[in-house]
Amino acid sequence: MSFKKSKSATERTLSTAEEQLKIVEVRKIIGPIADKFSALRSDASILRYLRARSYNTTKAAKMLKVTMKWRLEFKPEKIKWVDISQEAERGRLYKADYLDKQGRIVFVIRPGIQSTNTPIAQIKYLIYCLENAIWNLGSNQEQMVWLIDFQGWNTACLSMKVARDTAQILQAHYPERLGIAIFYNPPKVFESFWTMVKPFLEPKTHKKVIFVYPDNPRSCMVMEEHLDMDKLESYFGGKNIVGFNFEAYARKMKADESNMSGVYDSCCSSSPGLLDSKFRESVQSVTSPFVDEASSDQAICSNLEEMDGSTHGKMACSQH
């Protein structure tokens, strides 16, 4: 076991053998139900939750169970392009058609473009994009890069609810997925907003935020260090003047969705965070021959609550 010292904190690291022991311990804490989820039961997934909780197995197991319940309740795999295409149309958030220099998927976010949709619709689209990105991650890659362009941003664009919900979802249900977040040319007024948002972020998260200003050559080197300037959009100082093409983006996302749905329908274990079909059948067999999907999800959700020894989330489960 070793410790890496940084300027403001001490980060714990373990050997591969020690990590494996922790993974096994988390599975024991959660119990057999861990085997009934696909992506969440993998070593890589459990390890991300362990790292997010500084290798505390009890906290990591609790965090995983909360995500299992959330996935049963929110059903992110059920969100379809037709549900969120209107939010995607203006290019306020999209997955870039290039990777960073480490091979990580890049999200472009332009908060200065006003959304005409509700906070729920914005969050659904964010989750849709995250699920798609995870589906497309390379086998040796787990993290993503966020590029945030502040052109046109002002206090009228401010939404504490969306910011808070985004931070909660990312940290609670997609831990250790953020590689870096580059805030490009935020205005002076953003400092006040950042002060309000920062308390919602875990220290490990806000340490990954880098501020870049185009009039500061030194900070602009960050862009060249991480990204191919020939492919980077011009609004980030790159040479790509085409930018976001909604028609091409829609075709790509719908093609991905079709592939993802095919795997979901066959309950393949590589699909992101879905339930194993045999487990769903076993739940149905002990309840009623006429039980539907919502009822089996309720049974699983209740089981998770009993294991957790709490009633937290019971109301949410009963609503589906």
Give a quick set of tags describing it.
320 residues, Phosphatidylinositol Transfer Protein Sec14p, two-stranded antiparallel sheet, disordered C terminus, 2 domains, CRAL-TRIO_dom, phosphatidylinositol transfer activity, single chain, 5-stranded mixed beta sheet, CRAL-TRIO domain-containing protein
Strand-helix topology:
Blueprint (H helix, E strand, L loop, with lengths): L1 E4 L4 E4 L2 H15 L12 H10 L4 H18 L6 H8 L4 E7 L5 E5 L9 H18 L7 E6 L10 H14 L4 E7 L5 H8 L5 H4 L2 E4 L4 H10 L19 H20 L11 H9 L7 H16 L5 H5 L2
Parallel strand pairs: 4-5, 5-6, 6-7
Antiparallel strand pairs: 1-2, 3-4
Helix pairs in contact: 1-2, 1-3, 2-3, 3-12, 4-5, 5-6, 11-12
How would you describe what is shown here?
GO terms for molecular function: phosphatidylinositol transfer activity. With about 325 residues, the chain is of the alpha/beta class. The protein has two domains: about 1-75 and about 275-320, no CATH class; about 80-260, Phosphatidylinositol Transfer Protein Sec14p (3-Layer(aba) Sandwich). Helix content is about 50%, strand content about 10%. It is built from 13 helices and seven strands. It has a five-stranded mixed beta sheet with strand order 3-4-5-6-7, sandwiched between helices. A two-stranded antiparallel sheet has the order 1-2. Helix 1 packs across helix 2 and helix 4 packs across helix 5 (about 120-135). The chain starts with a strand and ends with a helix. The relative contact order is 0.13. The model is unreliable at about 1-10, about 265-290 and about 310-320 (pLDDT under 50).
